[in-house]
Design a protein that fits this description.
With 202 residues, the chain is mostly helical. It has ten helices and no strands. The longest helix has 28 residues, at 117-144.
Length: 202
């Protein structure tokens, strides 16, 4: 190793190579052999870090969540200024789900999950449920402080996220539009916050 150069993070390198292959060729069309070839190594190298293709794909999903979604659900430990927190969360969430990389992942999952339900389960548990759980924890705190009345925090979290994306996700997902403007995102979030608070405000 050259003096002053950091050691290679082989696991991260594998994920960086495998991700675009999954998106380009699909889950079925991306074999461990194909990933190893693109990596310039052997399948043995891959299996030293991941037990199976499913495990590699799961790690890729988790990596995407950590990189893309780490700050989306980073909410304060209190319920002060609830309107502003919900607006900020809504804006972050729309930026995430309308970004081209997450959209590519979703198209892959819609196509592949009927044949490989396991990858749908992986995405649902590592991405969707994780974010919803963090929001539910925040809403529970708001309920405990008397700011909101939340009979079921998981359901309420699902309601808010669905309200945010209801008018903007499908046009992008179906390639009717290539992006969501700042004004469209702002209007969608404001409408979501208004409807949510009308239903759950104390």
């Amino acid at each position: 190793m050259a003096l002053g150069r950091p050691p290679r993070d082989r696991r991260a390198e594998i994920l960086e190579i495998a991700g675009p292959l999954f998106l380009e060729h699909g889950y079925q069309g991306t074999s461990m052999s194909r990933i190893a070839s693109a990596l310039g190594g052997s399948k043995g190298t891959l299996y030293a870090y991941f037990d199976s293709k499913e495990a590699l794909f799961e790690a890729y999903m988790e990596d995407r969540v950590r990189v893309r979604g780490a700050t989306v659900f980073d909410l304060p430990p209190h319920a002060d200024d609830l309107h502003e927190v919900l607006r900020l969360l809504g804006k972050r969430y729309l930026n995430l789900i309308t970004d081209k990389d997450p959209q590519a992942v979703m198209r892959l999952l819609y196509h592949e999950s009927p044949r490989f339900p396991e990858i749908g389960r992986i995405f649902y548990e590592t991405c969707i449920l994780r974010g919803r759980r963090l929001l539910a924890e925040y809403l529970t705190r708001a309920d405990e402080l008397g700011v909101l009345r939340i009979p079921d925090a998981d359901v309420a979290a699902e309601h808010f996220l669905a309200l945010c994306q209801s008018t903007v996700e499908m046009p992008v997902m179906l390639c009717v539009k290539t992006e969501v403007s700042e004004e469209e995102a702002r209007n969608a979030v404001e409408a979501a916050v208004s409807v949510f608070l009308a239903a759950y405000a104390a």
